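User: We ran a pulldown and think these components assemble together. Before we commit to crystallization trials, I'd like a predicted model of the whole complex to look at. Sequences follow.
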Amino acid sequence: MTEEQQLEQLRHLFLSAPESDSARVIAIVLSLALVVTVLWMVRRRILREEYTPIWVGIAFAVTIVSIRADLLLALTRAIGAWTSSSTLFALGEFALLLICLNYAARLSKQSTQIKNLAQELALLRARVEHPVGSQGPPPA
Amino acid sequence: MSEAVLIIPAYGEAETLGRVLAEVDRALTGYEVVVVDDGSQDATASIAEAAGARVIRHPFNLGYGAALQTGYKYALQRGASLVVQMDADGQHDPREIPRLAAPVVAGECDLMVGSRFLEATGYRHGFLRALGRQLFRGLARLAGLRVSDPTSGFQAMNLEVLKVYTQNFFPADYPDVDVLLAAYRHGLRVAECPVHMKPGVRSSTLHAGLRPVYYAYKMILSTWSASASGRRAG
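Assistant: Here's a predicted model for the assembly, 374 residues in total across the polymer chains.
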């Protein structure tokens, strides 16, 4: 048997290994805990409602793949991975990257808004303290 | 009524600003001098006020570009027909402002950049800055704009340029060749005239640590962005 065939056999063994019920239960519990934490944070006004869909969505996705492990297994086979957990890890990492990008975009927008507000405040304060054409300082 | 406004962005320039404003007072008439204090912790604002300048104070430090843009916004609100910008560290000579502004006033160009390198003025800067200048010149040239001093902060402009520079794309930190390019892409006429500049009295934080690397990276990105946005008219 060649090395390649041995590896393929090993991968097949990994993929056909029975899923652990305890791992599934832990995943479901963690997903529910995430949803509860999100709802608690919204109730305590720590998290605004518009930022919750992404976290609820992630919790929902984890719950689905925990209940329907066959879906994750099919995806694992399709992408050539060895274990469902590595597929889940890769998906999670990609989701976190997308979330970071989303927040960077929001941050960029808010930086511009804050800058515009600060400039507007400075201009208004100058106008109030030294109205143009009445009490302003003399030109150079 | 058309106005001429001189914008001087200042952050922690108490050491040099008084002398700069005195030089401006001696050299210029008919300009409203606006000092934009970018959240200084020293006496910058009070020195500017004592010198008779109009002072616009940012509530906190926003950056050199944002301070300039606040000045542009003020000038735009005033309906200024001419705006000149110069630095507060004493490297720009206000006696050169009339010569810098004349082509803008005459309608020969929309934006005039004071260049240290059009003529042999004896101005020298370090290897990294020279390298950066060549890089930005090359980037501008790729986009169709020929400038010898793309990092000059000594400029004169008209109302049309103000309308472009008060838009949200204008960087809060370091506006350089990217904004020149944006003006150019908006169909505005960019020109240069030779000026003398002294080295800044104070060392710039822009050239400390890894900032030059970030600056070069950011400028490449924003130059690409500026060249992709807008469409060159004419």
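Strands of chain B lie at 4-10, 32-37, 54-57, 82-85, 111-115, 155-157, 190-194. That may be worth checking against your pulldown data before setting up trials.

User: Thanks, that helps.
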